């Protein structure tokens, strides 16, 4: 028969493997509608095929799936800037609801501040960005940008912020005379001569597999050139690129891939062996199983051993 040749047997095993792979892949792959959905704080780079998921870094007062409940956000030392920074990732700062008198930001927006600092000299709180959960990839850089913070100050010839000696100057800088309820005053008219720029934050995420960063990232202040845009580095294991969204439904992790390979191997062994034993060796019944003599011997040995142990 044609199955007696090694080439025919190899072809049969190859076709069986392809059929098994196709059926398992179809069952394990998520639907097209789900793959098009982009979750907050995640991104898939079409250029490199890498997937990033920063949701485990998000802090919340009531806790998340990956983080325990906390009353503090991440902190970064400002060093020569003179103030320390408070930052959360893809969510408002945990302390945001308790903020009081944020400079140049309407009161109704305080609870949505993701990054801020408090001036060490006069105690004024400045927002450096409202919450955002939209990641961007520039080349190999993973970035998160917070915008619409407090108004940026004017700078003198040395690049230092110009102090404002009167409340009216402060209102002009804001371009929006907010009263306590966050509504503009009727008597104040914004000056069109003042360019309204607002403080913003750029977080650059760096892959770091250090065991010390397994749950808590290291947030470092890089600097600011104009007291308006603030740069930070965030080192974390979650900033390392992955091939698939490991937490998404329908995807396979390492254990799933191993199980799939094991199942395919068993199917190829059984199906190919049975076809060969039945068609070539003309076996019937249990003798159709591949290596029937070996498995029968193992079963007999285990049975005798168990029977002997029970009689003792």
The whole-angstrom Rg is 32 Å
Number of strands: 11
Strand order of the largest sheet: 7-8-9-11-10
What class do helices, strands and sheet pairing give? alpha+beta
Series of H and E elements: HHEEEEEEEEHEEEHH
Binned, the helix content reads 25-40%
Low-confidence stretches: 1-8, 22-35, 165-169, 180-193
Overall 3D geometry?
elongated
Distance between the termini: 52 Å
Question: Which strand-content bin applies to the residues?
Answer: 15-25%
Mean pLDDT: 78
**What about the largest sheet?**
5 strands, mixed
Count the DSSP helices.
5
Q: Describe it for me?
A:
Strand 5 (115-118) and strand 6 form a beta hairpin. Residues 1-8, 22-35, 165-169 and 180-193 have low confidence and may be disordered. The chain is an alpha+beta fold. It contains five helices and eleven strands. The longest helix has 26 residues, at 254-279. 26% of the residues lie in helices and 16% in strands. The strands form three sheets. It has a five-stranded mixed β-sheet, with no helix packed on it. A four-stranded antiparallel β-sheet has the order 3-4-5-6, with no helix packed on it.
At a glance:
The chain has 5 helices and 11 strands, in the order ααββββββββαβββαα.
List the topology elements.
Layout: H1 6-28, H2 32-35, E1 42-44, E2 51-53, E3 74-76, E4 85-87, E5 115-118, E6 125-127, E7 135-138, E8 141-146, H3 167-174, E9 200-207, E10 218-223, E11 229-236, H4 254-279, H5 292-311
Parallel strand pairs: 9-11
Antiparallel strand pairs: 1-2, 3-4, 4-5, 5-6, 7-8, 8-9, 10-11
